[in-house]
Amino acid sequence: MTECVERERQLRQQNERPDEFASVISHDLRNPLNVAEARATILAEQAESEHLEPLLESLDRIEAIVEDTLTLARQGNTIHDVSVRVGRHGEREIYVEDDGPGIPTDERDAVFEPGHSSDSGGTGFGLTIVKRIVEAHGWELAVSDGIDGGARFEFETTE
Question: What is the pTM of this model?
């Protein structure tokens, strides 16, 4: 019975950690961010500068990141109805595919461009970084349809 009680205590502590993290993020990042946003807004009202708009946009982006982090901390990092499969095709190719919504044919080249994102809060750099790593290794990268309707990324060595 002692093991069961101990396990329950450990699970309770584990479940409390995201809430503690969310509190720290909320307090330690939000307060200075709110001050910076308020001062930047006042500055924008008092002076004109080409630097103000990028500054305000950056602060808005930080606010979005904080919100996303808080959401993940409170709800967990759960992704629904998507399965990912990694496999090998022949001697020179590996693939990563999922059963998500896929990538339309006319957008397949664009997904590797900096700033392109299907998520409104995304940075659009994830697949750009993947492409650069692939190219740095002298490999080739292609996108196609996955077996179950999602996207399939194929990595082929050139050796």
Answer: 0.49
